[in-house]
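Per reviewer request, we include the raw input and output of the structure prediction for the construct analysed in the revised manuscript.
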Amino acid sequence: MTQRAVFVWELGDGLGHASRLLRIADGLSRDDGVECVFVVRNLEVGGAFVRRRGFTVLQAPMSRIEAIRGPDTDQPVSAGDILGSIGFASPERLGTTVDAWSALFDYLKPGLVVSDYAPMANLALYGGPVPVVVIGDGFTLPPVDDPAFRPFRQARPAYDEARLRSVVASVQSARGRPSPDRLPALFAGDRHFVITLPELDQWARFRAQPAIGPLDGIPGPVDETPSDDFFCYVSASYQYTPRVLEALATSGRSGSVFLRDSTPGQRDHWRGRGLTVHDTPRDMREQASRCRVILHHGGVGTCEQVLAFGRPQVLVPRHFEQASNARCLMSHGCAVALRSGGNFQVEHVQGALRAAVERDDIRAAARSMAETLASRQSNALETITVACRALLEA
């Protein structure tokens, strides 16, 4: 009898969530009798990516994301603020979206759900018969055993967590389902796995189950003597990227740029300013072999890669999650970060690049981290796949 595993992605941008779910689905779909179906946030980007691999793809039910208006900040203070902004503060909004998820699961009749950053889907399944495996990185999968979400920083949250719990309880009561006594339990599932390096998990010391590492394993460090100073991988859609590129163009240092989401006109403009700008994505290992420093926004996947390659990093975080990654890397002495929100000038970018290129302690820390990572056994994908098979067979 064929069993169906449903892979769900509800929050977050880019291809990262779909990509890591796809790695697990690839392993399970090789088993006779397992059909894999995807329910994704972004059909146009992530859905098309998954569909090319031959899997059925459906649109995820989604609630609008409201701006956070806290007493101290417009950024989330904890995961509770993120939940509040997507509808957990309103019985009507939460109930409508959770009912849509529930109806979708009733239609699909999964034997297993694998969830990546999908709190409303997790709630729809809570207390039901379908086993759930939750995956995520250190930001998207908070510690699950705490009585409340830990704050990202010292500030007053926009949403009272007790109020959010009461909304969840009212929605679950209307559905005839039990309600979690604490919101972090929504991310526990039957099994849960933090699939990032422990060095990039800001909550590492609070987890009963430590991070198991990235699904694709840990590449070894590069050994080539670099010929260029930098490789820069940034987004043209970030409003402060021109400031970064101007700094590189006037730095007198050698290197190249891949400008994601850019137009031909934008690339030509920066070529005219003296930069080498690639039209297509570059292989990161090749660039790390050639370049002394990798400059990027601080996405967890790129951080992990460059950390494993043993090169210093200059980080230009665009949002809170990337700023958190930057703080983790700086705590290990292998990176230099600029302030998020554009709170930097051209000279700050040049100063950060100069430090990352010239300082022996930063280079030594980056190399030491890479050698430590290379010495570890890495079997995260197999660990998760085995857990999924066991739940399907239970």
